[in-house]
């Protein structure tokens, strides 16, 4: 009897694979210097980010590698370097208390076999030139919902730390930047 009751107790635990990913607009790559997450009173941790490129939106975005988060954070501090602007930015994101409940609401998504419904288990943090930060919730590209839009501040750091990365970035995207510039608004 005890085994049956304890088995039921563990099966009621939420099994949603919560995740966070960092994304950037096409041609405006960034380097995620630090991603710090905190659930007050439970845990605070650092999550590596590294190089982030395409895509912000459209048929390929928001896309980027997602990492699992447990527990779901209340605070997120993101520090990044913009290759296009040669600037560092930093933003403290206070996750709305009801966001995880909003993410639990079923949203349809397509598989190779059929159409299903499930929670929007991933939070995508978009980082654009000018320090624009946009947060979406999603379970598949194409059903993302914007939940926050914020402005980051310029942060500490020396652009010379990314000299080689910048050279490689400009070889790939320099012509695009010359033709289209670096929009810092309208993201």
TL;DR of this structure?
By secondary structure, this protein is α+β, with helices and mostly antiparallel strands.
Can you tell me the number of structural domains?
Answer: 1
Question: How many helix segments?
Answer: 3
Shape: globular
- Mean pLDDT across the residues is 91
- Hey, roughly how much beta strand do the residues contain? 35-45%
How is this structure best described in words?
The chain has one domain (16-180). Strands 2, 3, 4, 6, 7 and 13 form a 6-stranded antiparallel sheet that branches. Strands 5-1-10-11-12 form a 5-stranded mixed sheet, with no helix packed on it. The protein has 3 helices and 13 strands, in the order H-E-E-E-E-E-E-E-H-E-E-E-E-E-E-H. 18% of the residues lie in helices and 40% in strands. The longest helix has 18 residues, at 163-180. It is an alpha+beta fold and 187 residues long. A hairpin with a 4-residue loop joins strand 6 and strand 7. InterPro entries: DUF2931. Pfam families: DUF2931. This is DUF2931 family protein. It comes from Marinobacter iranensis.
């Amino acid at each position: 009897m005890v085994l049956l009751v304890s088995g039921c107790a563990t099966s009621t635990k939420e099994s949603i694979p919560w995740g966070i990913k960092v994304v950037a607009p096409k041609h405006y790559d960034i380097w995620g210097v630090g991603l710090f997450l905190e659930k007050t009173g439970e845990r605070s941790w650092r999550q590596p980010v590294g190089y982030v490129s395409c895509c912000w939106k459209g048929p390929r975005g928001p896309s980027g590698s997602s990492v699992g988060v447990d527990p779901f954070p209340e605070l997120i501090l993101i520090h990044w370097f913009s290759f296009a602007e040669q600037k560092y930015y930093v933003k403290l994101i206070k996750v709305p208390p009801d966001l995880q409940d909003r993410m639990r609401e079923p949203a349809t998504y397509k598989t190779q076999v059929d159409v299903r419904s499930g929670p929007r288990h991933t939070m995508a943090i978009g980082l654009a030139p000018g320090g624009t930060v946009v947060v979406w919730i999603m379970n598949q590209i194409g059903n993302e919902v914007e939940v926050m839009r914020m402005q980051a501040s310029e942060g500490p750091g020396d652009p010379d730390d990314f000299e080689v990365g910048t050279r490689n970035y400009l070889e790939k995207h320099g012509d695009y930047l010359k033709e289209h510039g670096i929009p810092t608004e309208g993201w």
